[in-house]
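Model: You mentioned two targets. I'll fold them one after the other.
Researcher: Yes, keep them separate.
Model: Target one:
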Amino acid sequence: MLIRRETPADVPAVRAVTGAAFAARAETPVPVEVTLLDELRGHGAWLPALSLVAEGPGGEVVGHVVCTRGRVGRARALGLGPLGVHPDHQRRGVGSALVHAVLGAADALDEPLVALLGDPAYYGRFGFRASTEYGVTPPDPAWGRYFQVRTLSAYDPDDPALRGPFAYPEPFDRV
């Protein structure tokens, strides 16, 4: 498996993988995660260097992850997601490889932290912890321990700017 940056030619495959990955939980014909990706691409929060795909053995896109520009107060931060793996390739390490790769890429770009909404049992293995452990409050208090943060090398625990409310890019609020 190869993890690489998404190219413009990958967009239809990424949409298809994301649609397939979230179809079982979708309440609409097109899962909200596909619409969210479309909206994020047209928004200034999209970071091409942090939109990664996993290629299967035949070169086909089998997974995708993206981090977009978020904020903790006025300080820059990243929001991870959506992360999607085609159902035919789930439980084979594709999602883990994508998370490791996007965290490494974010760290190389000197980002201080990555936030996400997800299962603590899954994301804990990558170093994510409840956001409140770092003084970061979720956009919705009901998210509780499911809103998590992973600090990176550029994180300074003594920097008060890296504490406070987390804000995803605007498309997250619309979609």
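Model: Target two:
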Amino acid sequence: MIEVDSSAQNQAKIFRLILEAMSHPGRIVDFKVPSLCPPYGLSAEMATLLITLCDFQTSIWMKSKAVGIEKFLRFHAGATFTNTKSAATYAIVNDPEKLSSLEEFAQGTHEYPDRSTTLVIQVDTMSNDGRISLAGPGIANQTRFNVEKLGVVFWANVAANHAQYPLGVDLIFVSKGKIAAIPRSTQVQVQGQD
């Protein structure tokens, strides 16, 4: 279990867990952060992840800016906020089923593919079963992944995101005590559909 504080050693532990999730797409990683009390609308897990990844050079987008969240992340990470999806380094997504398109976010360029948005998506539950099949770097053969309430349209957008590789966005899913990631290099297929 990780206690949240500002020590470099603690931040390194948190960063390694995020790296484990990104390096093994679809793997659900334990991410327990019991001592943080973020403002309403930001889970302790999401707040910890953003504090670890963000700094004064990163910009954050969220659909409806909550003043408490903005103040909290400015104070703890020095991050700025933007109203433009394509200008965001990170996007806080609390209602992923309402995302119209992943292409509205920064996709990177061929010279700088790393200049894309990472979506940090709050979900209720996730599991390694269901109809979503993942393949690609970091996955031996394939793995199953499921996020409750995310339908075929969302996963079609994620599959289309991979088709642009090395451009595209990366996704980090956050739930109570867990994180998982689907980088743009991951092939996504809804089983039972061509």
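Researcher: Noted. Anything on target two?
Model: The chain has one domain: 8-190.
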